[in-house]
UniProtKB/TrEMBL annotation, chains A, B, C, D:
Annotated source species: Paracoccus niistensis
Cofactor section: pyridoxal 5'-phosphate
Record-given protein name: Pyridoxal-phosphate-dependent aminotransferase family protein
InterPro entries listed in its UniProt record: Aminotrans_V_dom (IPR000192), PyrdxlP-dep_Trfase (IPR015424), PyrdxlP-dep_Trfase_major (IPR015421), PyrdxlP-dep_Trfase_small (IPR015422), SP_NH2Trfase/AEP_transaminase (IPR024169)
Keywords: Aminotransferase, Pyridoxal phosphate, Transferase
Domain of life from the UniProt record: Bacteria
Aminotransferase class V domain sequence ranges: 9-334
Pfam families recorded: Aminotran_5 (PF00266)
Length: 395, 395, 395, 395
């Protein structure tokens, strides 16, 4: 490590920095996962997650990465040969599609340019064309972590209803949940997929499915051969706070603490805080004379901002300079935008001064790396922060 | 919680108590899983696990419970309709078989009375009978956590070779690894399955496969449709210390620390320590006039000891008393021995005085619960400890 | 370190093992000691300590060891040439006397044989003899940590009153507070001295004075030249939760947590727990055929038990064996009983099974060290524990 | 707490933020302070502190705040009626003088305007006037924490030598040590006073004296009646790594870790890092159109920068806004500059981005509080950081 002193600025779009309270919670001694104390912990974690997903239906907690929860979503309701409709919002939507294909599902992919969220109109068109209702599920990424674009999930549901199509709505909100607004029940989502290391501010290691009654019913009658990811056994045993196999106890300690923190601030305040920091970040990018990858107004992410490098300049070389000189980690461009963009995470346990510090790291590293830009990004971000009330603090 | 003060005695056969060093390691701030610092961490963890499995072949680390690693073992080398030979050593062997069946594998189950490990002779017989070599794998549980019996894995390999059968040897050493001797390469194991929360002294949350070249080759040509559990992509990306999806970073911090601790003491010393404590525990059980479930000499586990309750007495009522009065968690009997046995874990971060304290909790709780027994178990255990040299301490 | 694995048994009479909850509290980030958050912390710590001392008068918290709080007690109310009456209960009473002399105070020392607490009758006699009321203070050690004898503080107050003597009553309850009963106001104590690393279960580093109005008044008119230890400035600034110089913030985090724990269990339950474990320990000593140093019935300590070695055997050699073989730290004999006794601490964060584990370490180490003894100490302790209800759990 | 999320910016001039590594070290379980493991810890801590003070003479570690180490310095070498020469660099120099007077020492105070460090010429003059050599010690504050001015300690020694005066040189480097250059032996200091919560990055709770042979000799023949602060007994017992009374074990864990960190970076790099950040801070202050309190070139502190408020504006009201809106703690003005200045700490575990974040908090809070200023302070600081090589990172 070059940097012995001073806090590392972990500004990737997840894992996000884990608050000290959560780290301390995680460092508690493990307990008997079949004893009475565990039952209380399990019930608390499961009930808490329902408040975060805003659902009164079921939530499943897996010891796995978010990728596992993707697979769980697919495996429980789809079987080999089933058709699904997916939307190419970026790298992660593409990975989910590839996973579906590996599992034998026929995925139709509505192409996208990676600069916006999903388009409900196109989804509606596709569904209308499927008059036989062969499409079993529509899969959308809520917050596309590779691009910083947000899909209008509620509008997707409206489009599905408008088309009168019975497909399930499956949403990847791995990086959206607990950072930007998500409403499982109100929006009519059937399966949501999430992970611990983003808005929930935990280390990576546990993941989630929220499951509607309709999806649970579908799982009973369909789905692939499955064991680890099977919802049914989970839901039954979860009723008393236990799990069918050994749960990641210490992560659950942290989860309960993180949920407490989110409610201490209030979810709406959390969401507003993210939006304000995101707007300040975009102000900085504009002031630098650079371009934000997401070019669809209203789709810009509150979680991260992806910045396009000027032609001929390597984003990865720039990021390496930022890390070396300023002890800040920025997100890399993935697959087709590799080395062409970098990503600034502004999610989770973050506040005004941390954001400004991070943006100053970007601004100074642009100079170090010889990337053409205007000065003044930090000043623009500060101007935005000063001129807008901080949620939960200012009136 | 009834007990505010005093250390809880977590004497279940896993999760085992996590050493403070490991808890502190886990509480380190998360880092960028794609940055240079992570690469070093990943390489260290992977190389370290090879020394624990005693293999120069591949080790896979999953963010999942051990149950996930079971599924990974099956999914990579077997496909629907494949035949496997399994051995009923107890509850966990049975669960593994059920999982295989859920996944469409045809499992032949050599019946057992749950009082010993697998019998290599019976395995040899079965394999000889399969002259068409249809059986794709032999699956054995190394240390059966539900009973406290150990299967002679090296002998199973010898039996397979004697039968001239090409099946893969797959071993569940979830609770055996790092507590009792296990030698992946030397014993000719093809796939080993393990977890973090036993001899490795971590919280639950990551799991392992060790994979032979032969198994990896089999996986290339066979196996189920799979994504999360797929070895191939893992092995490729692991080469530089990275993972195809977000790894459980904080657990890896702990893993590296735990492996350091195991080598500080020396694996042979670790194994000898476990055997000595196990023998002391059995001496206590005999002195109480109770019976150890494992009745096959040489198969008794160094990890846990399962004790049979006198007829007409509830093991669970006894365990509840032990927890309430003496702040000790004992393992329950599972499925067909439910309420008929209790299990004493003596694995991981444990020493002489902790064992005696634990055994005194058992002895006093037997009284509290009105279970007929002789006094003197603790004294017998102490006599054993005094009369046998402590590995690594006494000469 | 010889011992890589297994919990160390820290059975010295302080520092006592720090509960994980307290260690985590201490590991919180430091805050501005002049900011509003600190004020709340300070008020909580000060108010909490009053409940522990059972006083409505003032409590002072020093960043210092208990030795510093001894000096503070002397420096605030005595000046050079003043006479005090002290009682030789053991090593620590002797050290306090030496300190008084170093500071120029003329200490009269009622001799003792180190096998009991202070004798109120002798104190009364001495005070009656001082008809001129020249003696400014009577200094008594509540729980003598070097011997395991307890002085009857309430009786000392009664003796002073019977003698009609106006001296202040100053009590060292460094190792008594929060383990055995202590009642500052009810017992008419004027100055009490305590420390963090005993019944309060913190690491060493902060210490306490409880101060009566009478003592505070005396301090205004008397006392040595002093600055760091001065009560007056402390008391004034403490009113708002702040301190005249930088306080040991992280220790205060731990203090607040420890006080919460003590009240969760209830002070009376805490005291009863200590007495029961002490009685079990003495039962073990008797069964070994060894002698408890304290030979005055009713004076035996609930905090520690001092055991006399058989003639011709080295206590320190024995303790070294215990540490080496069984990973247990026992207290050494101090000054005139050096190498002749060892001390078993049974205070703070301790429960039945930890005590039995510790006693088994003593019993086995007696063998290792070739110390003549009977077996059966552990059995005797267990018999005591079984036959007496555990406070707060049984009944 | 208003702020649930995001890291608090603790930018007071001590306590400085404690690195996670140090917090984890402090959270280790306490050990027997008389056992062999402790001896090693004690030796390591004492030897380590010699490398920090740059001395081969003695270092004393007290469980106390820095104020205690002040008292220790005075009490060991001075007695009632002794004369000392002190220099009014600011609030803390004044407090030290008041303490000396409380202890009966006659302190002569060379007046200062709180805007620079000590003036060696004036000291030389005073000493020359003391032809009878009655002055026993010259007391100087190295880094005056209340003002941000540094005294040229080496020049003070030269002045004393030029005057041919035998007084001891006593230096308070509580906030200087381990942040800015200090050389005990080379500079001919006789007694240095320091604390844990500044450049050493520990929580408050332990303090230090470095002691020359000459001072130790003086202590043998002079000094006040003393016990807790007495050097002699300390030095003797420290030889084997132990302490005459219970040491603050957990703070020593942290100390050893912090010293390791300082040497990992290298002391010269640490000092250069502080100077660069201080210069950036002053650049910000100038750009705001505000004035730095220290107006003597070459005396500006690398540890903190004190900023004068424009006439008619309350520094404390401003600081309250900064805390409320931006979650940053700034230092208050003390005694005669109360409410007229605020202090920005930039010491210890700090890097470029944290500084910029902190300065942005100041800049935005100046607006919130309606304090007249120019924008551009943050930009000026960034310009400085970009234009100067980062020590240890850039070439």
């Amino acid at each position: 490590m070059t940097h012995v002193f001073g806090r590392h600025f972990l500004q990737i779009p997840g894992p996000s920095p884990v608050p000290d309270r959560v780290l301390r919670a995680i460092s508690q001694q493990v307990i008997d996962h079949r004893g009475p104390e565990f039952g209380e912990l399990g019930l608390k974690a499961l009930a808490g997650m329902k408040t975060i997903f805003k659902t009164q239906q079921d939530v499943i907690i897996y010891p796995s990465s978010g990728t596992g929860a993707w697979e769980a979503a697919l495996a429980n309701v789809l079987k080999e040969g089933d058709r699904v409709l997916m939307y190419e919002t970026g790298h992660f939507a593409t990975l989910w599609k590839k996973m579906a294909e590996k599992l034998g599902v026929r995925a139709e992919f509505i192409g996208g340019d990676w600069r916006s969220g999903a388009d409900p109109d196109q989804i509606e068109q596709h569904l209308r064309a499927d008059s036989a209702h062969e499409i079993k599920a529509v899969c959308v990424v809520h917050n596309e972590t590779s691009t910083g674009s947000v899909s209008p999930v509620a509008d997707v549901r409206r489009a599905m209803d408008a088309a009168g199509h019975p497909a399930l709505l499956m949403v990847d909100t791995i990086s959206g949940l607990a950072s930007i607004d998500f409403r499982f029940d109100e929006w009519g989502v059937d399966v949501a997929v999430s992970g611990s290391q983003k808005g929930l501010m935990l280390p990576p290691g546990i993941s989630f499915n929220a499951v509607s009654g309709k999806a649970l019913e579908a799982a009973r009658n369909n789905g692939m051969r499955r064991s680890y990811w099977d919802w049914q056994e989970m839901v039954e045993i979860n009723g008393k706070g236990y799990f069918p196999y050994t749960p990641a106890t210490n992560m659950l300690y942290g989860l309960v603490e993180a949920i407490d923190m989110l409610h201490e601030e209030g979810l709406d305040t959390v969401f507003a805080r993210h939006q304000r920091l995101a707007a300040a970040t975009r102000a900085a990018v504009r002031a630098w004379g650079l371009e934000v990858l997401c070019n669809r107004q209203g789709h810009e992410s509150g979680v991260l901002t992806t910045v396009m490098m000027p032609e001929g300049h390597s984003a990865d070389a720039f990021r390496a300079q930022a890390l070396r000189h300023y002890n800040i980690s920025l997100g890399s461009g993935l697959s087709k935008v590799a080395d062409k963009v970098f990503r600034i995470g502004h999610l989770g346990d973050i506040n005004d001064l941390t954001l400004v510090g991070a943006l100053s790291g970007v601004e100074m590293a642009l100079s170090k790396a010889g990337v053409p830009h205007e000065k003044g990004g930090v000043a623009a971000a500060m101007a935005h922060l000063e001129s807008t009330p901080a949620p939960g603090i200012d009136a």
